[in-house]
Design goal:
alpha/beta, 11% strand
Length: 196
């Protein structure tokens, strides 16, 4: 989104309830910055997991403070010491010379790579495309060795296991649940609203 004048949007949202921001972290950040710089107090802004990214927060710390809430489906970066697979991911980034801080989307990518590698390992030396696809389709419970909440890759459904964080004191702070994830199927809410 190349939006440069957020004023009309901010005016329309004054006094409204919850705002849900989907994707486009840069656009969400520039919107929050414009509201903050205009002195407008926004209602809670619930982003998607792409906002769970320390580089994004560093760029929009003041405008996100106390306003931005994000769903987190992976280990919390702030709780890395209690998540061995997250520590392995961080070490792999360091070994590869990547200095950017880990992000939720990077962790999801890591989990996907682990799923692929685990399926190949289970096939041993007899890896063919049909067998690999069959092995992947047989996986009904996946946590990426603990790096994310439980998912069902076989069903190709939206992940219901989630925790919620809010930006407080310039960092992401777990709000609920106190540990782990809430895996209630009602966490998934379908919408017929099209993006765009």
């Amino acid at each position: 989104i190349g939006q440069t004048n957020w004023g009309p949007f901010i005016d329309a949202l004054k006094g409204s309830g919850l705002i849900y921001a989907v994707g486009a972290p840069d656009a969400t950040g520039s919107f929050l910055d414009a509201a903050h710089n205009s002195g407008v107090k926004l209602p809670p802004v619930v982003g998607d997991q792409s906002l769970y990214n320390q580089a994004w927060l560093d760029a929009h710390k003041d405008s996100a403070e106390g306003v931005v809430w994000v769903p987190v489906t992976t280990c919390f970066l702030e709780e890395a010491d209690s998540c061995p697979e997250l520590l392995r991911y961080g070490a792999a980034l360091k070994d590869a010379g990547i200095s950017a801080p880990p992000s939720a989307l990077g962790i999801q990518t890591w989990s996907s790579a682990l799923l692929f590698a685990d399926a190949v390992k289970k096939l041993g030396s007899d890896v063919t495309r049909p067998k690999l696809l069959a092995q992947l389709k047989s996986v009904t419970k996946w946590t990426g060795f603990g790096i994310n909440g439980e998912t069902n890759p076989s069903a190709n459904t939206i992940q219901a296991c989630v925790a919620i964080a809010r930006v407080e004191g310039g960092k992401y702070v777990r709000v609920t649940p106190k540990s782990g994830y809430s895996c209630d199927p009602s966490n998934v809410v379908m919408s017929d609203v099209a993006e765009g």
